[in-house]
Each structure stands twice: as C-alpha cells, then as structure tokens.
From TrEMBL, chain B:
<dbReference type="GO" id="GO:0008199">
    <property type="term" value="F:ferric iron binding"/>
</dbReference>
<dbReference type="InterPro" id="IPR015889">
    <property type="entry name" value="Intradiol_dOase_core"/>
</dbReference>
<comment type="similarity">
    <text>Belongs to the intradiol ring-cleavage dioxygenase family.</text>
</comment>
<keyword id="KW-0560">Oxidoreductase</keyword>
<feature type="domain" description="Intradiol ring-cleavage dioxygenases">
    <location>
        <begin position="46"/>
        <end position="192"/>
    </location>
</feature>
<dbReference type="InterPro" id="IPR012786">
    <property type="entry name" value="Protocat_dOase_a"/>
</dbReference>
<keyword id="KW-0223">Dioxygenase</keyword>
<dbReference type="GO" id="GO:0018578">
    <property type="term" value="F:protocatechuate 3,4-dioxygenase activity"/>
</dbReference>
<dbReference type="InterPro" id="IPR050770">
    <property type="entry name" value="Intradiol_RC_Dioxygenase"/>
</dbReference>
<dbReference type="Pfam" id="PF00775">
    <property type="entry name" value="Dioxygenase_C"/>
</dbReference>
<protein>
    <submittedName>
        <fullName>Protocatechuate 3,4-dioxygenase subunit alpha</fullName>
    </submittedName>
</protein>
<dbReference type="InterPro" id="IPR000627">
    <property type="entry name" value="Intradiol_dOase_C"/>
</dbReference>
Length: 242, 201
C-alpha cells in the first residue's frame, strides 16, 4: 500500500542556496526568481519504487563489480555503510541507493574527465543497492582520491562519494555527497561550503567505524542519510477528491 | 531548556557534479554494459501495451547566459493515461511513470518519450490539468530543481498550481508547445529572461 502522508517542508536555510558565489558554476545555473511553494499533491507524495529485481546482488561491490576476474580495484579498501532514515527518525526500507566516485587516484571513468591520474582498469566507480527492512545499506569500494577541479586555479575536492536516494516519493528525491572524517580539504571546499551550517557539513561527513572494519582486510565508515519526513495524518486533510 | 524533539533533519543536498552520468546513466558516460539493466531508461515496461497517447517531448536546459547545457540530467514522474500513479490500484501495468534522461553531449537537447498523463482530482476535489513532474540536476545546481510540464493542447484553465502563479506570462514557461503529432517542445531556462517557474514541493 503506497504511503499517503504529505511531507514536512524542506528547510531552505539548511540546504545550500541555489546561488553560491564561490562555487562559480552555480552563478549562471541558479534561478533568480523565488520558488513557488506548493502544498504536496499526489504527484509529489508518490514516486517510483524499485526492487531487488531491478539490480544485481554484486552491484554494491565496487572493488569487484568492474574488475577482470581474479583482479580487484586498487586503493584503500573501505566499507561504506549506514541507514537511510526519515526526519521522524524512522528507517526507510526498500529504497534504492546509488553511488558514484573517482578511483583511488582521483580520476573518474567518464569521457569528460581528463585529469592526469590514471584510470584503474579494474574500477568502474559506480554501485547501487536497496536498503533492507531496517533502512540499512552497505557498499564495498576503495576510498576515492582527492582531485583538482576548475573553480579557482588551485581548487581540490576532498575525497567524496556521490550518493543518490529515491525514498518513497518524488518529494524525497535527493542527491548529496559523502565526505570522510579527518580530511584536511574539507574546510577548503567551495562545494561543501555551499552547505550553510557547520552541523550540515558534519552530517555529510562519514565517521570512521572501527567496530565495522574487517580486521586485516577492510576499513569501515558509517554514513547515515536522512530524507524528508511525512506528516502523520492525526486529523485528516484529504489530498484526493472525496 | 525544554524537551528535545525526536526528529532529524534532511541531509543537505550537494550538486550532482559533472560526472553524475557515471552513477545514474553509465551508458551515457561511456560505460555501456556496467549494469545489465540501467534504471529509468524508459517509463515503459511494454510500450506496445501502454494505454494512452505516446508523446515525445524535446527540449534543452539553458543556463543564465542562454547556453544549452550539455550535462543536465532530468528525472520525470507522472501518472498514467488514466490519471493513476504507478503503484496505486488500477495503474497501467505496462507503465512505470519514471524516466531518466539527459541533455545530449553534442547538441544539448533531451528527449522524453512517454505517455501523455491523464488528470486527477486533488485537494478539495479540484482537478489538476495533465502534467509531468520533473527534477533537474547538474554541475552547478546545488539542490535539484523541481518543475512541471503541462501541454498547450489541454485545458489548463483550472489547474491549481498554474493559477497560483501571479505573473501570468510566467505560466507559459510550464507549457509544452505542440510541434507535430504527439510531439512537443519544452525548454527549461534556469535564469534570466523567460526563467522557468521552479517549485518548492
Ligand atoms: Fe565528484
């Protein structure tokens, strides 16, 4: 049965603004007019749903999902795991989580990436999974490298993994990025600094999770993701015609 | 001090970046075959069985300088031709309602091939005009932009969202223009003259 509640409004002071001067590309790509605020309609409180039939079991293992048989990706082996929750602190089960990232040298397998660090023949750089009944997900991958990008002459992205989440409705659709505890580039990144509040940045920074590491094998980082919460309909405010 | 609320706050959005296609459309990024099946390549499970009129909507996403962006990625979500959302009772089993598509790396043009949505009754029994919801992401877009496609050959007069727009000329930015049989043009302008109406949903 599809969920029907409307969503709490997005906190536009918590999210980055569209126009962020120091992230140069946003200047010409940001609307100048105000967004029109819209009470949720059925178009927003429903959304596409995916299941295990849409993906393969190995899709969440980036160390091996592009590698020749018998080989594996080069880099620091990590587990990235956590839960997808909503603003009511409830798990979001059975939702699709997709990630993409640079390789250990900071190079993307994309025809537009021309950084001099080499492509790793055994690393593709994308993965996907579906959260379990507790909202839990995990990936195995290599820690991405920092890479330079053209903003100022000398701009470097902190190590990061891009994360895309569907949730249960179009209104919950979210793309964000996961950073790593202790990265000295974090305070210098114009993209990360589009997030206005320090707590917002901390929420995007995965914690080293020693208890989840596999000894002599793989380091772990914990990264929980929060999606918008649905209002509970204690007193009914019907969206659909009566 | 007062009691603490047991609530969390949504993770802050970050730009999808220039390489979003690696993760969401590997074939587009030059990595065909990465997955056996990519997500959202078409909203049809079986186009030959889908009910309703099949339409093709072509357009570009223009930045504030009038340049057609080559790297925009869009997702659409809509009801079926009968006005029922996929997943709800009675929805067309041949249709998923969701599609992922991107501006062409050479021309900057995108194409969405889908069914023309029906209308449905919303709050207070008011019928909304047929529309497709869009979510636009790209490098330089810090938080995905929501908008809608309406159709110029439908009756849009009583649509609750369109009627909310104070400056009437701006309504046109949400209306796809008919260019042929089942063919429409819908351009998205991020900024400046003719700026598309974006929604805080
Ligand atoms: Fe990146």
């Amino acid at each position: 049965m599809p969920l029907k509640g409307e969503f709490y409004q997005r906190d536009r002071e918590w999210h980055p603004k569209a126009y962020t001067h120091d992230y140069k590309t946003s200047v010409a790509r940001s609307p100048r007019q105000s967004l029109i605020s819209l009470e949720n309609t059925v178009s927003e409180i429903t959304g596409p749903r995916f299941g295990h039939g849409d993906i393969d079991p190995g899709d969440n293992d980036l160390i091996y999902n592009y590698a020749q048989s018998g080989e594996s990706a080069i880099g620091e082996r990590i587990i990235l795991h956590g839960r997808v929750l909503d603003e009511n602190a409830r798990p979001v089960p059975n939702t699709l989580v997709e990630i993409w990232q640079a390789n250990a040298g900071g190079r993307y397998r994309h025809k537009k990436d021309t950084y001099l660090a080499p492509i790793d023949p055994n690393f593709g750089g994308c993965g996907r999974t579906i959260t379990d009944e507790n909202g839990y997900y995990f990936f195995r991958t290599v820690k991405p490298g920092a890479y330079p990008w053209r903003n100022w002459v000398n701009s470097w992205r902190p190590a990061h993994i891009h994360v895309s989440i569907f949730g249960t409705a179009f209104a919950q659709r979210l793309i964000t990025q996961c950073y790593f505890e202790g990265d000295p580039l974090i305070p210098h990144c114009p993209i990360l600094k589009t997030v206005p509040m320090q707590e917002g940045i901390e929420q995007l920074t995965a914690a080293l999770d020693l208890n989840a590491t596999i000894p002599l094998d793989t380091i772990a980082y914990k990264f929980d993701i929060v999606l918008r919460g649905r209002r509970s309909t204690l007193f009914e405010n019907r969206l659909e015609g009566n | 001090m007062v009691q603490k609320l047991e609530t969390l706050i949504e993770s802050a959005s970050q730009t999808a970046g220039p390489y979003v296609h690696i993760g969401l459309m590997p074939t587009y990024a030059g990595n065909a075959g990465y997955y056996d099946e990519e997500i959202g390549t078409t909203p049809f499970l079986d186009e030959s069985k889908a009910k309703g009129e099949i339409v093709e909507i072509v357009g570009s996403v223009f930045d504030g300088t009038g340049w057609a962006m080559r790297d925009a990625l869009i997702e659409s979500w809509q009801c079926d031709a009968g006005g029922v959302f996929p997943g709800d009772k009675g929805a067309d089993p041949a249709f998923t309602g969701h599609c992922r598509f991107a501006a062409d790396a050479e021309s900057g043009e995108f194409t969405l091939r889908t069914v023309k949505p029906g209308s449905y009754k919303g709050r207070g029994g008011v019928e909304s005009a047929p529309h497709i919801s869009l979510w636009v992401v790209a490098r330089g877009i810090n938080i995905g932009l929501n908008t809608r496609i309406y159709f110029e050959d439908e009756d849009n007069a009583n649509d609750p969202l369109l009627n909310r727009i104070e400056q009437r000329p701006r309504v046109n930015t949400l209306i796809a223009k008919k260019t042929g049989d089942g063919k429409y043009r819908f351009d998205i302008r991020l900024q400046g003259e003719g700026e598309t109406v974006f929604l805080d949903i």
